[in-house]
Design goal:
By secondary structure, this protein is an alpha+beta fold. It has one domain. About 30% of the residues lie in helices and about 15% in strands. Strands 1-2 form a two-stranded parallel sheet. The termini are far apart.
């Protein structure tokens, strides 16, 4: 029972938000889901945008 849930988190900015708003909401969502006892797998360190383009 010691297994933790792994959650993949890959935010995108597509055509919905400006670049600034995309980063704002990415951080707000990440902050909120970090409150749970889960392992979050995201794009940090994978690409320079830290989100899907």
């Amino acid at each position: 029972m010691g297994d933790r849930i792994k959650l993949g988190y890959a935010p995108t900015r597509r055509f919905v938000f400006s670049k600034e708003d995309a980063h704002k909401y990415k951080n707000l969502i990440l902050e909120k889901i970090s409150e749970f006892d889960i392992e979050i797998i995201d794009l940090e360190g994978i690409n320079k945008f830290k989100m899907q383009k």
